[in-house]
Amino acid sequence: MPVIPIGPFHPALKEPEFFKLYVKGEQVVGVDIRIGWVHRGIEKLSEGLTFEQIPFLVERICGICSNVHPLCYVQAVEDIAQIEVPDRARYIRVIIAELERIHSHLLWLGVAGHLIGFDTLLMWAWKYREPVLDLFELMTGNRQNYAMQAVGGVRYDIKPEHVPKILEVLKTVEKETKKAVGMVEGDPVTKKRLEGIGLLTTEQARDFCVVGPTARGSGLKIDVRRDDPYAAYGELSFDVPVYTSGDNLARVLVRMDELLQSVELVRQALDGLPRGEIRAEFKEVPPGEGIGRAEAPRGEDIHYVKTDGRNTPFRHKIRAPTYANLPALSVMLPNYTLADAVITLGSIDPCFSCTERVAVVDVRTGKKRHLSEEELVEISRKHGA
Amino acid sequence: MRAEELLEEIKQKFGEIFLEGGLKPHLGANPRIFVRVSKERILDAAKKMVEMGYRLCTVSCVEHMSFFELIYHFSLDQEKVLANLRIEVPKSSPRVDSITSATKGALFIEREIHDLFGVEFVGHPDLRRLILADDWPKEVFPLRKG
Fold first, then answer.
1. In what order do the strands lie in the sheet with A288-296?
2. Does this complex have an ipTM over 0.90?
């Protein structure tokens, strides 16, 4: 059976990953994903750093959603030490997290457009992502890796003069996102490229334990912001958008809805922003264990921290959302054409630096057996790939 | 409170699998449920959790002097509760049943723990290397403390 290898180092890929697509003519019939080229041993590194140093380390797990890992981590530690975070800090956490979701989803929207040959959408979405990054620079000094989260609160305050600028950017994003929804839904070619492709049924989504927009596009109403309210989400009102069709179009529409939702959430948080301190003092972290969860742009992120009374964690376990979503590709890719594989891969918004490892689903439709590396080579030789 | 009721429900459903359990306060939301279950029956426990509607988030492995502690984090999203099942796997024979037949969500998680800690998951359909390179020496587990 012909195999089309892509990666691990390939001019078209942004991160090192390796896909083997098994094809019959135009049809993809099986897939083998191998990742592990960006494994940096962050969990082990974390065991050698103090509780206050770790946010800077975990911030560098991912270059796009760089706020969500420190947020999860500090929540886990706050849980252990029972630190009460000041109200103002909780609201600032929401503002940063939602602005991050906006820029991440806009980035993704552009990439998705690019993957289906709709480069106008790429230019256009990234154009409106830029001002959001400028906001981060204004508020924290950095466009990425904003170093905002700290155990007990946040490191920078939002100044009154920032608020009008934030509101202005939100207005533009809102207006342009609404246009984009029209562009995707109203354009028959774009719709045809997305509709009914890369199907993940609700049952499969539940079985593979997928999270985030991938789950919500398949009819699972889960969202950590609602299901385990952290920061100030318990005090803000928002919906969890759900689509039941489970195809690529559903995952696009979920993210579009979330963009508008995030705009609204930032407005609510700015509106209700309480006065006061932004960081609570803490002396030491007692022995114990804590779990921090947050809804990253790609889905649920979870950090487990165990402490033994010293100044460093005894164990720090991290599970990024793409790690939970990737295995589901083994049912989403087969039975569609090779040209659709790219957008289906893109539709889970994979982040391999987050996943930092992961790998290998070899499902060959029909037989569904698992093959070893040697067997694969053997097969590909025999059938003259 | 809802978490207490759910802990009671788990206790009822689990029967003899349930060794001990309790709630741990969690700021701002429902308390976390922690339950210790017997290692031999973890597959049954996972099946019961999935039946009750829980979703597997991940599994954390922690190394202690003589055993590995595996913590299975299950989320019951609509009830806003996170339940954690805890088992102890002796270091002298680090083998435990795979829960992949209860939920496919465990496929990658168990392979990762197998790579980094050397815990063997009996019944896993494909326990190949996940993170480590193919030429990494056998019996060397990077996250073990020594």
1. A288-296, A299-307, A313-319
2. yes
